[in-house]
Amino acid sequence: MIDTIVLTLKENMFAIIEHNKFNPPTSFIYKNDLPIRNHFLKCVQNPSLKELKNGIYKPRLTLIQRINHYGKTERNLRMEFSCPKIIYLNNINELEEKDFLKLIAKLKILLKNMGVFVFEKFLINAPVSAIHFSKNIILDDFSIPYSYISYLKNIQINKKLDSNQTDYRNDGLSFKYRANSFEVVFYDKIHDLKKTKISYKRTEDKEENLLQLNILDWIENSKKTPLEILRYEVRLNTRQKILQILKKIGLDWDLSKITFNNLFKRDLSKKVLLYFLEKIKTSFTELKNNDCDDYRQNFLKILFKLKGKKNVALRIFGAYILAEKYGLREIRNLLNIKSYKQWYLLKKELSERKEINFEKIFFPVFKQIKEFKSFKLENC
Q1: Is the peptide bond before 25 cis (omega within 30 degrees of 0)?
Q2: 337 and 269, same domain (yes or no)
Q3: Are 71 and 229 in contact (CB under 8 A)?
Q4: Structural domain total, the chain
Q5: Nearest residue to 215 (alpha-carbon basis) of 234, 189, 235
Q6: 3-state DSSP call for residue 371?
Q7: DSSP 8-state symbol, 95
Q8: What's the rounded Cα separation, in Å, for the pair 284 and 261?
Q9: Using alpha carbons only, what angle is made at residue 342 by residues 341 and 346, rounded to the nearest 5 degrees?
Q10: What is the three-class DSSP state of 72?
Q11: What is the pLDDT of residues 145-184, one digit of tens each?
Q12: pLDDT score at 348
């Protein structure tokens, strides 16, 4: 439902009760013992690698002091954490709406241990600065995440989504397209954990994967079918982007409603994930012709269809080979096509190749998101 979330508390919503737990100690801020460089100063407190290896999870805290537009000093506390890790110490087990108050109670205790006191009502209604909606897609039909991720490399990025970068990496076990304000990610969750044993630095969860390595032992000792998980996340990194996407799914909210309590909803999470999946579906074009792998036969089919126009047939066939190798999203750059009309005509010609139904291929993904049942390792 929800994995990572960032809450930002105003100064009247929290109290620092142990200044020395931050680096530098927050007492310097409150006593004004340190000069504010560029009107900005911050103190941080994050879980250490040793704590994560020992199964201790904490939010990442940042106390920020700045000068606002009115020339007055203001202090905010930014806290970033994974909701399921607060309760389960992993983000494979998924939370439900009924877990919200339990999450709040646990979070309050953790914060107190970190030297910060917050009333539960302020945590419940805390403003949200960023949020990661997520779903673990359980592949129990003997398919593997790589099969799905390999199709995604052929996405024609929709400029309406304001995406400016696409990553297809880690030997085809991770796919991501992103902009400054959001990311959409698909990756092999189990493989991501296994990579942590070598180095956590190139994993999706980074050092926090150290917290959940025991899951690999559980999987190895399980007598059931090997567990395969395709992880799907939509990461909205600004309040403005959250508001924009909520309007896209039919919620006419303003920024005052972007709070922890209001966003911790099953149906809202489902709608956001389905919204981006539908956008991906409309951007998807699969160019491979599975009926015939013989390039000679493919070229002859194109030539026959074009009534012997060899130059045009060669152009389409060359683009087809490049698309098969690099994906449709790379074709325009590789061929240096600057004219939108030329690109539209070529894309149309390529799209006349046999297309594969995205929704049929991704049926397990659509099905599990629409059902939106929370996954627990104990039920696997």
Answers
A1: no
A2: no
A3: no
A4: 2
A5: 189
A6: helix
A7: -
A8: 35
A9: 115
A10: coil
A11: 887 887 776 665 554 455 555 665 556 588 888 888 999 9
A12: 65
